[in-house]
Amino acid sequence: MGKLNDLSAAGTAVWLDFVDRKFLEAGGLKALVEEDSLTGVTSNPSIFEKAMGHGDAYDGTLAAFDKENPGAATIDRYEHLAIQDIKAAAETLTPVYERLDAKDGYVSLEVSPYIADDTDATIAEADKLWHAVDRPNLMIKIPGTQAGAPAISATIAKGINVNVTLLFSQADYQRVAEAYATGLEERVRQGQPIDRIASVASFFISRIDAEIDGAIDKRVAEGDAEAEALKAIKGKVAIANAKLAYAWYRDFIASDRWQALAAKGAQPQRLLWASTGTKNPDYPDTLYVDELIGPETVNTMPPKTMDAFRDRGTVAETLTQDVEGARHVIAEVERLGLDLDGVTGRLVEAGVASFAGAFDDLLGAIAKKQPATA
Q: What is this structure's pTM?
C-alpha cells in the first residue's frame, strides 16, 4: 500500500499542508486521497500567498468576480478566491468525511491574522467563513492566543469545527483543549448534539528546534561549561515537547470531565503536528513524522515532506516511546536556562506576525490585479 497508508493505519492521519488552484483542478488532491489515504487539508495565509500571489491561475475567476462586483474590497476578492478553493477541497474530501462518519475528511480555512488578539472579531469571522463555505467538513482555524481560547469555546458552542493553530507550548495547548471541552459542555447545556463536531490542536514542531538549536550552538561556540549537556539535547526538544503534550492528552481524555462528554458522543480534539518539514539539513527530512506517530493524531505535511516520507519514512508507534526520556530533555532545557517558555511565547508572536505579513503580501498582489475601471 505504501508508507503513508501505513502511517494512517498506525493512527496518525495524513493531511496535506498545501492548497493551490491548479493542483486541485488537475486532480492532485483526489489522487492523494485515493493512493495515500490522505484525509485532510490545511491552509494558511502563507500558503494562499504562494498560490494566489504568483502566476495567473486565479485571474479568470477574479475577473468574473470583479465584473459582477465592481469596486469590491480587496479582502472580499481574496475571500471569494479562497472560499472557492476550500469548497473544492471539501468536495473532494466529502467521501472521506462520510465514510469516517465525521471523524475526518476536513479542510481548514483560517480567520484573518489581523484579529488574532480580538476575541469578538474572531468569533464573528469564524461564523462568517463557516456560513460562506457552507460545508460540514470545514474547520475554521483560530490561533491559540490568549484571545483565541474564549473564541474557540464560543465557536465550538455554535457547532462550528475548529482547527486551533500556532500552538507551541504545553500550557497553551492545555488551555485550548479545555476551551474545546468548555464549548462542548455549553452545547450539552443547550440541549444541542455534539457527536459530529470535530477539532484539532495544531502543535508546531520544527520552529522550536530551530530556535533552541540556535541558542545551543551559540553557547557551545562561546565555550559554555555545559557544552556537552547542551549538545546532548540538540534536535530533541521539539519532539520531547510534543510527546509530553500527547501524554497530557491521553490523561485528559481519561478524565471524568472528558468521559462525561464522550458518553454523549464527543470526539476527542486530536493533536495535529504542524511545521513538520525539517529546517536543519543535518536532520532526516522525515524526522518530525517518524518520531510523532500515535493513535488519534494528525500530521499535516507540505508536499516535499510527504514525498520524503512516502520514499523513506519509518512507521512505528513512537509517541509513547521513552516518555521519561522526553521529560528528562525538558528538565535539562530548564536546568540549562534555555527558556522554553520564552521561546514558545516569542514563536506565537512571530507566527502571527508572519501570517500577517503573508496576508499583507497576498492582499497587495490581489490589489494589483484590480481592474482599471474599479
A: 0.96
